[in-house]
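One thing: can you check what follows?
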Amino acid sequence: MARNDDDADARADGVRLVPFGPGALLAEVGSADAALGLALHARAARAPAREVVPAATTVLFDGLDDARAHAVVHEIVSAWSPRSALPPGETVEIPTAYDGADLDGLADLWGTDRHGVIERHGAIEFVSAFCGFAPGFAYLSGLPEGLAVPRLATPRPRVPAGSVALADTWCGVYPTASPGGWRLIGRTDVALWDAARERPALLAPGTRVRFVPR
């Protein structure tokens, strides 16, 4: 699907709504938190889209059947502000064994020891901003800029399933074994994706997440 910037609807607060092919609209916002907030607002307002998909700085409204559906999405986006607070979401606790291969290197980066890394990481309430990369993989926001973590210069060919990892200001849990360049700090046995569940992704966008040492 292709954008058509000639028909873009831009606002003074930086929100931009553009056509994205014949049956979709793409809202461009300033951050992952704003994208999540708009997606949750749109779902609560029952946006007439088959899918409302947040990403790092955008929200895709896909499956808009007619001009009326497009107009309703424009109204919903117009009624939302990037300054709106995120609604409270379900909290999920992830029991974590902090024994990752990059834990000591991260301790050096943060100027602390293993205990300090565990304490800092466990004190953060992360929020699932969006999902991607693999089924069940959630990009968890909440790590302060001062604790941002560089990706590995060379990705590992295989990261075990359940690995808890950091990259930039994101935290994530690998739902399956796969290549990856994030810094590994621990592991969990929690199933991140189960197609038999009513909600297959455990950490759907909007979910609040805490990591609990075990």
